[in-house]
Fold this protein.
Amino acid sequence: MCVDSVLPQLQEGDEIVIGDDSPNIDMSLSSKANPQVRYHHNQPPLGQAANVNLLIEAAQCDFIVLIHDDDFFVDDGISKLRKCVAADSNVTAAFGQQLVANPDGSICTKDSLNLNKAFYRSPADESLRISNFERAAIGQFPNNGYIIKSELAKKLRYRSESDVGDACDYDFGLRVGMNATEIVFIPSPVSVYRQHQENITNQPGNDAALRAYFLLKKYLGSCERTALVSNYLERKAPLALLQACSLNQTSIAKTVYEDIYFRRNFPSVIFFKATLRYLIEHMKGYAIFR
């Protein structure tokens, strides 16, 4: 579904570079099936960050369009991205709205509206006057389905899981925001996020929310702390606390629990849910210590 959404939008000189961590070779994706496709079967698997870096290094064009294998582009998605960067040489990266789909690819209209509203990708958000860093910090700049200058992508690269855990997409986006000349939001659908149980965020042990929370706080040391960014940290804090508890990281959970950004969620439902989970885990540790 992903590759099929890209092939009709290719132009002369374009190519698709695929990094496949799955155990079996997919011959339908090889260059034998299409000369514009370069297929890398990674054995042993590289992991998400190293796999993306392989693709970035392999890219030979001036721009890279990144898409995850379980997502796909709308019919004119790549064309919209291409037109955006062609119109202004100062544009370093561009992205648009994301739709949400079921595993079979059918669009979920309500979920799509909610996703774009939550991440400031509604048509009204085109008028937001925010910095490139803010776009990345609040999640408006997505984790895939965007176009970026190859030169910047090759300079920044993904950092390893040992450095940023499962938040490697978010970390890359933050650093793009700090280094880009201009990032442009296109207020119409470009790509589709396909939700299913095999998504990375649904995997046991995933620490993306927790890592993203601390990454953003770290980068705020050298960037402006705005109301939008503070609100994002408030939204992320309960999720970070719940994830820390699930991962049995008690000292980190305590740090989040005592953080002002978490306390500002009082008296919401998620505040009480996360607090209860933290207190249960805290008492478990106390009982074992006793």
